[in-house]
Request: fold
Amino acid sequence: MTATWLASPHLLAVNLLNPTSLLSALGALAVLIVLFCETGLLLGFFLPGDSLLFTAGVLCATTSKSGLHLSLWATLAAGAVGALAGAQVGTCSAQRPAGRCWKGPAARGCGPP
Reply:
């Protein structure tokens, strides 16, 4: 598999705030990337997660003859992988700073059981 699709003008003109633009350029991979960023990274709060999922569901219900169509199984798998991986990254990246917050004299009686 070559990486020539990364340099295509179609992909370079993607609007990150438009779910249709993301889905037409990246397909189910857009669902994985957006869910990963929204659940695992702090910088994913501006991405259109809910509207992207709704649009992806609508595009899964269309026929393949009507232009843009997404595979239901690929979209479901990408959503599950993106959400679970993002949750794990978010948890792992927050454990070290949270451990420092619960130690010391200021956190006496406020720590986890």
